Each structure stands twice: as C-alpha cells, then as structure tokens.
Fold each of these.
Amino acid sequence: MKAYVLHAVNKLQYDDINKPDCPDGWAIVKVKAAGICSSDIARVFTKGTYHFPTIPGHEFAGIVDSVSSEEDKGLVGKHVGIFPLIPCRECPQCKDKHYEMCAHYDYVGSRRDGGFAEYVAVPVWNLIPLSDAIPFTSAAMLEPLSVALHAAKIADIQKGQSVGVIGTGMIGICAAQWAKCLGADIVDVIGRNEAKRNLVEKAGLNYIIMTEQKENCQFDVVIEAVGNPKSIDLAIQSVSPGGTLVLMGNPSGDISLSQNTYWRILRKQLLLKGTWNSSYDGKNPSDWTEVVEALEKKEIKVEHLISHCFDQDNLKEGLDLMFLHKEPYCKVMTVWNK
C-alpha cells in the first residue's frame, strides 16, 4: 500500500509499505478521506512524532476492510469515523471513563501509524459506524468537530449569553457554531483580517476583526482557539467581569502574561478552564455521538469549511500550503482510494 512515512523531522516520504497487521480486537480501515490538522504541520516540519518512522494523520474516515474477531464481522464494509486516542484503561482517569485525560494514552497518527495511508489499523472500540449519508470528507472532520463541541460544553454556555470565539481555524468556527446550538444569544468570531470573513458568515456567524475589538466589547464566555500570547491577552480583555474563559488553542511555544493581563484575571474574578480533546466511550453517548447526530440532522455546517482538497498523491501540496501560509485556508482535506 501507499503511505506517507515520516522518517525524521522534515523527511516525509510517500512509500510503498506492507498493509498493517490486525491484532485481536482490531480492524483494518480503508481510508477514504483524511484532514490535515495544524498539529500535523508541527509534527512533519518542526517537532516530529514520538518515534520514527511514523505515519501521521489522526483526522480520517473510511470503510472497514477487515477485522480480527468473528464477533466483529458485521462491521466489514461499514463507513466509519475514528476516535484516534487509545486509552490505557488503567489510570484513574480511565477508571472514571474520562479517556481524553488518560495518563498513558496511545494515539493514532502521532504515537502509532495514522491516516495518511491507504489502510490503517484501529481498535474496534475506536470505530464510529456512520450512515452512508454522511460524506467521507465530513466524517474526516469528526475529530475537530468533537473537540470544538467539548470546549463549548466545558464553557457551560447558557441560553441568552454572549459568546466570543477568538480564532478562525476550523475548530474555532465550529466552536462558535456549537455555542449557537447550545443557546447563546450573541456569537461573534474574532479574527485578524478579512481573509476568513466569508467562511465565518457562511456558517451563520458574526465576524469581528481583532483591531475592531474594544475594551467595552465584552462577552459572558470567551473561547480562545489560537494559542499565542496576543490572542490570550485579547481573550482576557474580552471576558466580562465574572465571566468564563476557555483555553483551547494549542500553544506554539511558551505563553507569558504581562502583569496587567494577569491583574485582569484577578480583578474580573474570571473562571478559567482548559480543554483538550473530547469525550468518547465507544457506543455510549459522548461528544462524538452528538456530533454524528448533528451531522445526520444537518444541524451543523462543515463541508463549506473545506477550503482545499487534494488527491492522496498530492498530500504534500496541502502540507506545504499550510506550513508556508501560501494562501488563506480553513480545513485542508485529502481523498484516498478513489
């Protein structure tokens, strides 16, 4: 099969390799669509994965090609999304089924081979069966959609509240959509320039440019979806006294706050929350099952967030586009096994 194998930092090769083995309780998924996450850019170009060689890619969907256990035979041929975190099931968080906070997790696409390949090995527990009505490209966005929903739920958004989301990447825009679904009266997405206005407004959301944001423009809840000191400073400025700030953006480096910014947290008596990943518990209700239901009912819009789509042979073009910021983008998608 063909796969993009990371042999070292900035050394990604499109190799011919063997199909993965299928241990007991696992399945082989034939990949049909795989999204490129900003974390994939760091893994490929600057930070690397946890070991080499590794196949990156954790946002993907496909068709079950084979399974190891007779009891799972009914899954073969099914369309599936994939929860990429493989919990240890032994730590205190796992015992409480907070698998997203597992202390010793494995992860498809960073700690083990992932979705930038024609076939991937995945535990059956991590498969989310989908109706054929959900396009594979939408199904490949289940992971960022679930992360965005998790952040909106952690924010404990109440009906009638105002919500500001800082960041115009896919997860930021989706978090704003979820905030609206959860009953927020006002939802504004805050960005740096005009480049993403059309994408945001197509999702039925209001758009504010960062330079327009004033001290008196404050929200009951702010979700920060960028992860740099400037955006975090803006987020703290933008929360109303007594409000809630949810930090979701992955930091690209160390974060430091000025004394003045830190004082705002204290004097406003802010409730500060962090979020990472999403809740999942197999077939039981979770962020992932809620996202699937919302997609089936068309309660959330995602296909228009795909700004670029590449064939599997051209995945490196998508990586370069994002790494070099060649042009504005939202979700960069790849399609496989056409």
Note: Residues 142-154 form the longest helix (13 residues).
Amino acid sequence: MITAARSVSSEESSARAALKLGPKSIAERLRNLELDTSGTMAAIDRYTGVLYDPLDAQQADDGTRSWWFGHVIVQSAMFGPIGAGDPIPAYRLSHDSRLGTVRLGSHWPGPAARALASLPEGLVLDLRSEGYRQLGPVTGAIAPRVVSVDGSGRRKALNHWNKTAKGRLVALLGRTSASVESMDELVDWAAANGVVFERADGGWDLVAESLEPLAV
C-alpha cells in the first residue's frame, strides 16, 4: 500500500486524480513520499475532523487516553487496523483512493479481517463508515445506526453528523473508563450516563441528541 501510494504521489497529475486533491491540498501528496522519515504521533492524536474533534485527545487525561489505547482500533487506509496509541506518520489516503492496479477494497479485507479476528472475545462496537467497514469486516460486531429524534418521536438517520455523535460516544466511554463486555452491559452503561441506545429494526439505534455536549 505504501509503495502504491508513493507511486501515485510522485507527480501532481497522478496524485490529483488518485487522492482527490484540489489546488489548495495538492501539497498533501508529499506526505506519502516522506513516510519513512517524518515524525509520528499516536493515531488518536494524528486524525482530525468531525469524528475525532469531540475527543480533544491531546487534552485528555491519562486515564482516558489509557482506556482508548486499550480499547479503540482505527481502520487506516494506509496501515490497516491500528491501535489508538500506535505511532503513525502523516499521510494522505482514504478508503476510496485509486492507486492504479492496487485496490484498497481488494487488498485490505483479508489481512485486516485476520488481524481483527485476533481480538479478545467480547463486544465489538463498529463505528466505522460503510466504506471503511468494507476494508476489514468483523463478524458479529454491532454497528449502531445514529439517528435524530424530533419532538414527535420521528427518527431520521444521520449522515455527516453521525460522526460527531460517534466521537462523543468514544470520548465518554474513555472518560468513564467504561467496562462493558456485552450489548446489555453497554445499554446499562449508556442509561447511567444519559446516552440512549435502543433496539430498532433488528439492530440498534444511537440517539444523537443524547450525546449533545450538555448531556456529556
């Protein structure tokens, strides 16, 4: 994967198409050429955006960070499944990047699934987007749907903003050093912390409003 990313990143023209870079972001291709020499930081600190910003990871206390390091796995397009505390360099790659003959959707599922299969038995909460979930399927994982509930009780699945709710959930799990080994235990933990997990349509709904900042 690193070799393929370097190849398409070597020229602006190929990087623009493969990595979906615009004029303002084209310089990000250089990250893929410096993976062996650039500095590293914990994955939980490296990533940014609406999923990770609610964590405020670099300001979190040691207990919270320790929980994340022991419980959170990130699906990296470049490196596969990595621990929240694993040191990684900056890079530019996403699940739908086009790397010539190397297809992320074909390359990662086998080795990623084998790595994830080595996890200890217990509850696996899969908060990845569909694109990243396909890079490393986890049999038996619970993938909750994030919904918004209006005043009349009607539910609407969220798209972009579901990442914020997921980030807030992981932040709260870490801050409370949650100890849950089953979905029943997670539901009990959620209720005790003002978070709403409910059964719906054969799966589970996570109500975004219950994870608004005041509730957290």
Note: The longest strand covers residues 145-149.
